[in-house]
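hey
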């Protein structure tokens, strides 16, 4: 996981180091499901935009000092639980508005 940054609107970003390079993502939300924490990330292109609405879900953990880390969700049942919880979050949000605000 890379660094967290914030812009003038206090929107949070994270840089992910992937096999094929670094991807900057906007943090959509951090949420809990089944006593575990997860993070939803909106990957952005080089212009800071996301055109397809694809969201990446990761496990989210913090160490004793409060330093965050991400973990891949490898268990299919756990992934379904995280997806369901994120869908519930989206039910209370206007996701199109979230996507449009990332390019601003």
């Amino acid at each position: 996981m890379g660094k967290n940054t914030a812009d003038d609107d206090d929107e949070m970003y994270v840089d992910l180091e992937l096999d094929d390079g670094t991807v900057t993502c906007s943090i959509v939300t951090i949420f809990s499901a089944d006593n575990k924490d997860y993070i939803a990330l909106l990957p952005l292109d080089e212009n800071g935009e996301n055109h397809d609405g694809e969201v990446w879900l990761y496990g989210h953990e913090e160490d004793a000092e409060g330093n965050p880390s991400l973990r891949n969700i490898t268990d299919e049942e756990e992934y379904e639980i995280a997806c369901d919880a994120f869908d519930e979050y989206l039910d209370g949000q206007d996701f199109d508005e979230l996507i449009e605000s990332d390019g601003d």
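Residues 1-8 have pLDDT under 50 and may be disordered. The helical segments are 76-91, 95-102.
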